[in-house]
Write a structure and sequence with these properties.
- The strands form two sheets. The chain has an eight-stranded parallel β-barrel, surrounded by four helices.
- By secondary structure, the protein is an alpha/beta fold.
- About 40% of the residues are buried.
Length: about 280
């Protein structure tokens, strides 16, 4: 039997966040580019198109899955739902942070009308335990910010390991966003930022699900040996994806190419016109 081009472990792993920095693709280009991704040999690795709420009014988009971000918090939720009601696109998710100064109960009351799963961006403060507990109770999901345009936006290995362990123990699935520009832990040569690797996150989540102690999860996030990380990930069971759902990338082909280079995805996945999106 021929092996699938995209192994089950990586299906739906890459949310198409092309319109966000550092890619910042214009909307007029991002929508057709996403359609080309969905027609390509690697289409099974592609998740929804991620769009900011501000882009929805008047946006012409086909019947594709979209995940909508509301960076200011839930106040704009009614307007987003109204815009999506008249769109052929399917709302796959909403990504909403808890604004500074807003309590956890108040936030979850504000999102009660959401018809799709909400990825609640978990605050990096004392509200994290209550947020994950509320996600577990309501069926919503977590979103962890793993980087950004400033060094302080990158949680270190200890902080991120604690967040992953907390989500796994609460049985709350999560996605990650920002800063995951490479498969394995690295130092950005331009900014000097210490960047997490998306394969490190996958491995750390698998270890947490197996009951590993925090130091082992921290070590998995800190590992910089590409071959070692790739080998360990090759033994991870696909069930881990029920916990670590996806991450946003502004260029679908970059992480896909790295997975091919690490022999985790077949080279044939890069074939076809879709690879030129």
């Amino acid at each position: 039997m021929t092996a699938p081009l995209i192994p089950p472990l990586f299906r739906g792993l890459l949310d198409d966040a092309a319109v966000f920095p550092p890619g910042s693709m214009p909307l007029a280009d991002a929508v057709p580019a996403h359609s080309r991704h969905l027609a390509a040999a690697y289409r099974e690795i592609v998740g929804p198109l991620v769009l900011p709420a501000s882009a929805l009014p008047g946006l012409e988009i086909g019947a594709v899955e979209v995940s909508v971000t509301l960076p200011e918090g839930p106040a704009r939720l009614p307007a987003v739902l109204e815009a999506m009601a008249s769109s052929p696109a399917r709302l796959a998710g909403l990504e909403i942070p808890i604004p500074a100064g807003m309590g956890v109960p108040e936030f979850f009351t504000a999102i009660e009308a959401a018809p799709a799963p909400v990825f609640v961006e978990v605050p990096r403060d004392e509200r994290r335990p209550g947020t994950l507990a509320a996600c577990a109770e309501t069926g919503h999901r977590a979103k962890f910010r793993t980087g950004g345009v400033r060094a302080e936006l990158y949680p270190d290995e200890t902080e991120l390991a604690a967040a992953i362990l907390a989500a796994v123990r609460a049985e709350v699935p999560f996605k990650a966003t920002a800063g995951l520009h490479h498969a394995v832990r690295n130092t950005d040569p331009v900014t000097g930022f210490e960047q997490h690797g998306y394969l490190n996150l996958l491995l750390a989540t698998a270890l947490a699900a197996r009951g590993a102690a925090e130091p082992e999860v921290v070590a998995a996030l800190a590992e910089r040996d590409r071959a070692a990380v790739a080998h360990r990930v090759s033994t991870v069971e696909e069930e881990v994806r029920g916990r670590f759902l996806s991450f946003g990338t502004c260029d679908i082909l970059e992480p896909l190419t790295e997975l091919v280079e690490l022999d985790l995805v077949a080279a044939g996945a890069l074939g076809g016109d879709g690879a030129k999106a």
